[in-house]
Amino acid sequence: MSLLRPGRMHVGENTRHEYDDMMGPPWMGLVYLVFLFLPLMFWSGSPVRPWAVSAVAALVFLPMYFAFFRWRGLRQRALIPAVAALGLAVITVNPGGNTFVIYAFAMAGTVLPLRHALLAAGAMLVLTAALFFSTLPLPFAVGYVAMVTVIGGLVLGGVVLARARARRNAELRLTQDEVGRLAALAERERIGRDLHDLLGHTLSLVAIKSELAGRLVDADPQAAKRQIGEVENVARQALAQVREAVVGIRATGLQAELAATRLALLSAEVHLDQRRAPVALPPALESVLAMTLREATTNVLRHAQASRVDVELLHDAGELRLVISDDGRGGALQPGNGLAGMRERIAGVGGLLDIDSPAGGGTRLQVTLPRRAIEEAAP
């Protein structure tokens, strides 16, 4: 139960927006104000004074409530005792004033460290109980104190749990960013080594043979011509090697993509179960499967509303199959979801794509690479 969005926690802008989306806009928390007036509806006669005091208190509370979402630091924390004091003042004429105390519980859980929030909640509960026992008959006082204790505890616990979840999501995002940064750094180092090994020897050989051809061009034109021919052959071989290296640079490893997928799903609280057959893949096919997994993960996060994703890489009778399934709502696949590009990439290496996505039954995506496609892609 949450009356406030802990969207002002200092856990990063992305976390705040995520929790805002989860809990809804601030005005939704005002629905709980109905409990301020609920006890008055059961009073006999026309308790004009309690109604008037409660209405004025609600008008005073509204600017403080919305200011809580705008302010930072001490000003924001100062609103906690202010709202609690407002509730305690109203309790003297309307026991429904405990509504403001509950709001103060939620505010404390939103911005205070856990220990301080518990101490503040305890102090507010003691003051509220003292007022109830001094203004109400004992059975009613016990009932109201029990209600504030239970509801306030639920609200405080819900806000604290939401803060912990938001903080964990922020840490997961940081971890994912760090994994991406380290992967990019490792890739740059690999590219540097490959280019050095590939071009260093080749360019040295081209320089030596070109220099030799220049010396022989007058003394032995035929020998110079042979050297120029060898330079041409070396250059062509180097060009072919560079093209192969570029393909390797562009390729994304399936294992690295699985790690990125696990982090992305974990940050969205989606469980990933993966099973991969121990099979060596040609770089071209591995890149296609990795891109397919990335696109499927993106669709799961954006559209599926799933809680579980299964990824299987199967190798049977020379045929390779990548199966990605989820337990989401299904029926959400649209042509604009990157499926067209996925089909083109898979068809380009001789594979087949099959998608089953019944409404309410999740989605199952299967990529099949026949033996012939694997043999043709092998170096």
Estimate what percentage of residues fall within beta strands. 5-15%
- Tally of structural domains: 3
Structure annotation, total helices: 12
| Helical content (DSSP H or I, runs of 4+) | 55-70%
Global geometry: elongated
Span between N and C termini?
59 Å
The count of β-strands is: 5
| Spatial order of strands in the largest sheet | 1-2-3-5-4
Question: How does the major sheet shape up?
Answer: 5 strands, mixed
Order of helices and strands: HHHHHHHHHEHEEHEEH
Mean pLDDT across every amino acid position: 82
Key attributes of the depicted protein:
379 residues; alpha+beta; Single alpha-helices involved in coiled-coils or other helix-helix interfaces; Heat Shock Protein 90; 3 domains; five-stranded mixed beta sheet; 5 strands
Can you characterise this structure?
This protein is of the alpha+beta class and 379 residues long. The chain folds into three domains: 13-174, no CATH class; 182-250, Single alpha-helices involved in coiled-coils or other helix-helix interfaces; 254-377, Heat Shock Protein 90 (2-Layer Sandwich), CATH 3.30.565.10. 68% of the residues lie in helices and 9% in strands. The chain contains twelve helices and five strands. The protein has helices at residues 13-23, 34-37, 48-70, 73-91, 98-111, 114-135, 138-219, 221-250, 254-267, 283-304, 339-348, 371-377; strands at residues 271-276, 308-316, 319-326, 352-356, 363-369. The protein has a five-stranded mixed sheet. α1 packs across α7 (138-219) and α5 runs antiparallel to α6 (114-135). The radius of gyration is 34 Å and the shape is elongated. The two termini are 59 Å apart.
